Amino acid sequence: MPDIELELRGECTNTFDDLKARLDVLAKGRHERRVMVMFFGEVAGKGVDIRCRVTNGVGEIVAKMGEYHAHDRREVSVSASAEQVVGFAKMFAAMGFSNAKVGTREMWKYEIDGIEVALVRGMSGLAYIEFEKIVLPDRVDEERPSLESLAERLEVTLWKTGEEYYAFCKRLTDDEDWKFSGSEEDVVKFEKSMYV
Fold it and tell me: Which of 121, 156, 157, 177 could form a disulfide with 101 if both were Cys (CB 3.0 to 4.6 A apart)?
């Protein structure tokens, strides 16, 4: 059975510094800088989110299947060199995946009680928090309360609807991300952003 990425999220733009200070007391965090091309489309009538990304110089291609806001999407990833990431980004753009965007995010990740907690901040200051655990499909309902409990302990208000999540993503995209067409100019711009 494929693993499910059980993931709950909420905005923390106004509470970011306080949350980071609290998390730094609870666990040792690691800092990451990620640059990614995000492709959104459909395959076999279902939502697919493909990320061609480089995190701290390490490349990865990630496909997430399911509704974009869902807490229980399937996720598959493969490692790739930074050069391969660029090649995949060009290929997905050529295949016609729509709404491709490039974004840069700073992240601080923590492991607490078997849950990965990620504080994510964009360059404009917009921020969100993710609580994530990889689980088997038949354990989603059983594991979800542990993520909700940790969010409550940290006084995080989680998004309850897809509309809340999409509204935040629209703000983030409008404020920060740029459209990726796969053109040579866009490819050069993406490559340069990986090494800033």
Answer: 177
